[in-house]
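Reopening this ticket.

The earlier resolution said the output was attached, but the attachment link was broken on my side. Pasting everything inline this time so it's all in one place.
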Amino acid sequence: MLALLHTSPVHVPVFEALRDEAHPGLELRHHVDAGLLDRARGEGPQAVRADILAALRRAVAEGARAVLCTCSTIGGVAEEVADGAGVPVLRVDRPMAAAAVAAGPRVVVLAALESTLAPTRTLVEEEARRAGRPVEVRTLLADGAWPCFEAGDTDRYARLVAAAADGVDDADAIVLAQASMAPARRLTRTRIPVLASPGPGLAAGAEAVRSGPPTP
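Inline output:
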């Protein structure tokens, strides 16, 4: 079983649909805690370190063989405390970051929430060092998008994100820094590759479950 740690309930149907499409038979269990993101935004991601570890341990106690953190703001902290969980802990955006680095040296990190920009930029730079590739990372905030998400207007949210992506004209890849931004990909018109995290992230989680130790 793969546990998913979310900071918004909107991610649950997204990952259920991806599982049905690409990983039939994979058991998912969703843990939603919006308070983690609220505190991380106000106090910094390290402020929720103990709470993240507690959530990971609860998931493992319920039978998780791996945990996928779908929030980019706290994903780095989830990886940091993984040893205390006893199972693989993955951040949903790492495979996307690796793909961006492979696409070329000019990467734009696009986010709707400012607290996501720095962690995602750091992740892309980390993947570039791992791959031994040069990278120039720029960050861009989709103005006005996040209030739409908070208000439940996901259609306008996606349109604003897509418009911001279409405004980029000098990059080798555009990274959609939050899993919630993925629907904007189908609305973009740019010829620059626009990368989203849910699909590659879930694939990595499924592989971690398959390659993990047998369930006792």
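Reporter confirms the inline version is readable. The mean pLDDT is 96. The first strand starts at residue 2 and ends at 6.
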